[in-house]
């Protein structure tokens, strides 16, 4: 099984987003983080998913949306 590894910057972003959402809706913040992490696990096991992204200077860069947020991998 593929292992999901989050860049330190991504972890910082996730923490900031969850903290922001949790100010008004703690359960929504937990649900959102669970959805995002589940999506990342799915991406790791199904490498064909996602939209190829060009123009980032990284060969093979893809993205996948979770609500209004975008995961790059």
TrEMBL record:
Coiled coil: none annotated. Keywords: Toxin-antitoxin system. The keyword Ubl conjugation does not apply. Pfam families: ParE_toxin. Gene3D superfamilies: RelE-like. Belongs to the RelE toxin family. This is Plasmid stabilization system protein.
């Amino acid at each position: 099984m593929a292992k999901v590894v989050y860049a330190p910057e991504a972890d910082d972003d996730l923490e900031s987003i969850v903290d922001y959402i949790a100010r008004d809706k703690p359960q929504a913040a937990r649900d959102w983080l669970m959805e995002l992490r589940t999506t990342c696990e799915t991406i790791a096991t199904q490498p064909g998913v996602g939209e190829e992204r060009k123009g980032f200077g990284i060969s093979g860069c893809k993205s996948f949306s979770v609500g209004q947020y975008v995961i790059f991998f």
